[in-house]
Amino acid sequence: xxxxxxxxxxxxxxxxxxxxxxxxxxxxxxxxxxxxxxxxxxxxxxxxxxxxxxxxxxxxxxxxxxxxxxxxxxxxxxxxxxxxxxxxxxxxxxxxxxxxxxxxxxxxxxxxxxxxxxxxxxxxxxxxxxxxxxxxxxxxxxxxxxxxxxxxxxxxxxxxxxxxxxxxxxxxxxxxxxxxxxxxxxxxxxxxxxxxxxxxxxxxxxxxxxxxxxxxxxxxxxxxxxxxxxxxxxxxxxxxxxxxxxxxxxxxxxxxxxxxxxxxxxxxxxxxxxxxxxxxxxxxxxxxxxxxxxxxxxxxxxxxxxxxxxxxxxxxxxxxxxxxxxxxxxxxxxxxxxxxxxxxxxxx
Length: 348
Prior knowledge:
4-stranded mixed sheet
């Protein structure tokens, strides 16, 4: 081994291994909170192990999903309010998994930045752990990438990967027929889609992120960073009760694009826009931008974050079950023999 002439180190090139180790130690308690049956080995190894038999499955089919948080991250970075985007990251993945009828089992995250700021990164990962706790899945691994020159100072990016399982033969959607009832579950705001338009609307309004929220308490930034709602445990309870034929996570594309994804060819849906109350954040955005109702419905969730397609004779019982689980439930309409989504009434 040579002493070398310049004595350069990896840290001088911009990568601080010690900071990465410090982050791992900081987040270990958060990851430990997420432990569940099936976890064999988590943080610290070259890979994470999970025992499907120990998790209670006899003939499982695995389901995987990956997603990010989109340009909502820009608001979180600019305001320093990064605690909730980890919840968003988990929700965007596991809410998709449950639409297949799968129970989320474990989660892995990817955090990339130019220079690792341990405190900020830890807050993000602690949010990821909170999302995992709320959805019953384990945070068993991930990657923290410090890449000098790839990101502007203070910026970072996130991606998430979730794996779930279901017993063979129980996949959704299944059994959707004309006359099925559409049950909409209330959202907690904008969730994690449409933020390029959201940021444009804030520019148009002339307000800053630290301005008073025009429709509620706190600042505008705080209101727009409300985390995506997690529907996993409630949806699984409804599925196990019987009568659920399909679920649609209302993300990019809104009701207009996402609901048809779970309907068989030849079937569509009719939705009464007056069956739920439009949350004020969407009213403010629509007014600020003069946005047409059709554009709102294919860009934002407009207050409905998840739709369950259920048997008509089970609709009332499932509504009661979901409300007991803490959900705001609206009967949106029914499945029809006309393809596409038809709207009646007024969104207000």
